[in-house]
Amino acid sequence: MKRKTVMALLAGVALGAMVPMVVAPIAAQENTARNTYEYLDLFGDIFERVRVAYVEDVDEQKLIEAAINGMLASLDPHSAYLPPDNFQDMREQTKGEFGGLGIEVTMENGFVKVVSPIDDTPAANAGLESGDFITHINSESVLGLSLSDAVDKMRGPIGSEIIITISRAGTDEPFDVTIVRDIIKIRAVRTRIEGNVGVLRITTFNEQTYDNLELGIAEIKEKIGEDKIAGYIVDLRNNPGGLLSQAIAVSDAFLETGEIVSTRGRDLEEADRVNARPGDLTNGKPIVVLINEGSASASEIVAGALQDQRRAILLGAKTFGKGSVQTVMRLGDKGAMKLTTARYFTPSGRSIQSLGIEPDILVEERKIATSGDGENAGRVTRSEADLRGSLENVLSDDERKLLEEERSRHEATALLRQEDFQLAYALDLLAGLSIYNSTK
């Protein structure tokens, strides 16, 4: 036998052992493709039979849209088809002005769940709360509706009424709420001053958020004086999220360096990591971030970044737990598709999907009783100064002024506890941090 023939036979034996490993994946791919085309043929066959044989005439476009919605809804609650009108509404919402009720919603167990009402909107004014389930819209059950269909039914002419039925934890029976639709004008960031603390209430993450935040911080510095500011409270409670780019910009506003967030999709090679750039708008002042179960998505990115980077103390309740990223894909003049394409991770590598972010200090919201059977109702206190013949403490004008300012601050915080216990707690915390830092 010639050398070349022997080598060929040996090569044939070696290759023969490898043939199944090469052919099998190709065969599997061909089988998968064939099955896919067979099911597409099945879809076409069913569509044609429905179109021709259904008891009533059908709207072919609505039939196809329903099939697309069903396919996307089977993936997760956030993937959806956006017809042209819905796509335009979404674009308007990210710009900060649109018509509707003013709630961020998702689907859970077939019902519409309120992620959070938006501040100063018809839904918030009507008393809707994070975690409420909408079971009926104008007496029509939402069971069987897609999220897009339910949202469509909640939209309507400005000034028109809508009755939604709410199921709420802690209530025995569902109840109806009547809401008047209105133009929703969202001011992304509201500011207020409590003593020497700047409060930044971020309601949503739209195209205006970072600019509003920068302006708000500048206004606080001007009113209090930068050297006198004890710290900032960033209020993310009931913030349903919004644009990822704005969540990154807001996080970057408080960080000098370090990672903000990373996103990972199916292809790990396309993982993206975003780091902070130098420049802290607050110049390193202490920060307390308020969160609750209505803080979702972009809010959780900010909270997670500031918590992991030890830049802020998180106070409140566990967040909503939406740790996925949606990409909006244009479909020409046929609207768009919102598809979940990645998960996001906090700087420490945490995925908060379905878990939420736990606060550093758990403080559930509650009201303080001030009358009736409340613990402190009508209580009379006495001090040394009330005793007859007690020694007088002579203070200078400056000392008396400082004492009066301190007493006024405590009285204001005490009143605030009746309205917003979590915010009052955050103010007390910042006061303690300010004292601690001043002794270093």
Shape: globular
CATH class of one domain: Alpha Beta
CATH architecture verdict of one domain: Alpha-Beta Complex
Mean pLDDT level = 84
User: How many H/I helical runs?
Assistant: 10
- pLDDT under 50 segments (min length 5)? 1-22, 370-381
How many strands, which pairing sense, and closed or not: the largest β-sheet?
A: 6 strands, antiparallel
Cα-atom radius of gyration: 29 Å
In total, how many beta strands? Answer: 19
Order of helices and strands: HHEHEEEHEEHEEEEEHEHEEEHEEEEHH
Describe this structure in words.
Helices cover 38% and strands 22% of the residues. The chain has helices at 3-53, 60-73, 84-95, 122-125, 147-154, 209-224, 244-254, 298-308, 397-419, 421-438; strands at residues 80-82, 97-100, 103-108, 111-117, 133-137, 140-141, 161-167, 175-180, 182-185, 189-194, 197-202, 231-235, 259-264, 272-275, 287-291, 313-316, 324-330, 336-345, 361-362. Strands 3, 4, 5, 6, 7 and 8 form a 6-stranded antiparallel beta sheet that branches. Strands 10-11-12-15-16-19 form a 6-stranded mixed beta sheet, sandwiched between helices. Strands 1, 13, 14, 17 and 18 form a 5-stranded antiparallel beta sheet that branches. The protein is globular and about 95 Å long. The longest helix is centred in the N-terminal third of the chain and has 51 residues, at 3-53. By secondary structure, it is an alpha+beta fold. It contains 10 helices and 19 strands. Helix 6 (209-224) links the parallel strand 11 (197-202) and strand 12 (231-235). Among the domains are: 30-61; 98-185, PDZ domain (Pdz3 Domain); 189-362, Alpha-Beta Complex (2-enoyl-CoA Hydratase, Chain A, domain 1), CATH 3.90.226.10.
